[in-house]
Amino acid sequence: MSSIAADPPRLLFLRVFIGAGGVVLIGLGLVFALMSLPLDDIGHLGIWLVMALIIHDAVIAPIVAVAASFALPLARTIGPVYAAIARASLVASACAALVAIPGIAVRIAGPRNSTIHTTDYLFVVAIMWLSALTMSAACVLAGWLARKRRADRGNYESARADR
């Protein structure tokens, strides 16, 4: 892992530029959110943000830490390419599931307008997660087979050299 001090100046500039751009966009989002919300709802927004922080730190972060502790040895076993593919499919599915949560909640509560939420979000999320887990399992299997093949090839070549 490289540190920021060891990075070339161009990479340091890009990191600072991207970070500053993110801070500016967060600031704009806050300004627009505060301008568009009635004063009564700002308190509710604060409560929602505090609860989101508590849920993230008390529930989501520990689950991810435990999953990562189990996944790291597996990632070392299957290799960096297959681990990156599996990780990307799982992260993309998690992000898409977070986007679908409001649709699931509206579907459960019943939409105000029945023509707006016509998709069965729970079914879509289930299929998406099934696809992501299948992709991850395929990556684990392919990485394990590739490692086994490399080990077998090494044994064949060492046995050939002994002749």
**Average of the residue pLDDT scores:** 83
Number of strands: 0
Outline the biggest β-sheet: none
Order of helices and strands: HHHH
Uncertain ranges: none
Percent of residues in beta strands: under 5%
What global shape is seen?
Answer: extended
Radius of gyration: 23 Å
**Class by alpha and beta content:** mainly alpha
The amount of helix comes to: over 70%
Could you tell me how far the N terminus lies from the C terminus, measured between alpha carbons in angstroms? Answer: 43 Å
Number of helices: 4
Please explain how this structure is put together.
- Keywords: Membrane, Transmembrane, Transmembrane helix.
- This protein has 163 residues and is mainly alpha-helical.
- The protein has a domain of 85 residues.
- Helix 2 packs parallel to helix 4 and helix 3 packs antiparallel against helix 4.
- The radius of gyration is 23 Å and the shape is extended.
- The model has no long low-confidence stretch (mean pLDDT 83).
Key features of this structure:
mainly alpha; 0% strand
Topology diagram in text:
Blueprint: H1 9-36, H2 39-78, H3 80-109, H4 121-162
Helix pairs in contact: 2-3, 2-4, 3-4
